[in-house]
Write a structure and sequence with these properties.
172 residues; Peroxisomal Thiolase, Chain A, domain 1; globular; single chain; alpha/beta; 5 strands
Length: 172
């Protein structure tokens, strides 16, 4: 993961979109924004490449580290416009307004029982995410980490995301 941690490796990696991908499928309980489906799609693709179908066995100590400078910009814009127009914001927007909600959804779906952390990077997103994952593993809070890097497209399209599963090479 970082210098001095040579035992850590990339166990699986995925991107969205890859060849042939359209928009990621919707996610029940998340509305209006392409951010959440993109997080779920890239995370599931990465985890499936390593483990097949989920969930993982108990005590897997897999952290989720979600890194996004902008977060759910489409959802935030919708809420802003609705409030400015004097409208009522639906209750799902309060639930999904923090990135932890979709990271928690991924963790629950896959049985990932390590910490869930969301970062808004000020520098290199991957380097900051790997540093956080390394800290979680070094402190004993996690045995591996699912790092999700996402930035929505500025036009409300899904954008791009990368998911990387980091851990010990011998871990299955």
């Amino acid at each position: 993961m970082t210098a001095g941690r040579s035992a850590w490796a990339v166990l699986a990696e995925a991107r969205w979109p890859e060849d042939g991908d359209g928009a990621p499928p919707g996610v029940p309980g998340f509305v209006h924004s392409p951010f959440h489906p993109l997080v779920v799609a890239v995370a599931e693709r990465c985890l499936t490449r390593r483990y097949g179908a989920g969930p993982l066995p108990a005590d897997n100590r897999t952290a989720v580290v979600l890194v996004s400078a902008g977060g759910d910009t489409a959802g935030a814009a919708h809420v802003r416009q609705t409030v400015a127009a004097g409208g009522r914001v639906g209750p799902l927007f309060f639930f999904q307004s923090v990135p932890n909600s979709v990271a928690g959804h991924v963790a629950a779906r896959w049985g990932l029982d390590g910490p869930v952390v969301c970062l808004s990077p000020t520098g290199d997103p991957r380097a900051e995410g790997e540093a956080e994952a390394d800290l979680l593993c070094h402190d004993g809070d996690a045995a591996q980490a699912l790092l999700i890097l996402i930035e929505p497209a500025p036009d409300g399209a899904p954008g791009e995301a990368t998911a990387v599963l980091l851990g010990e090479e011998t871990r299955q």
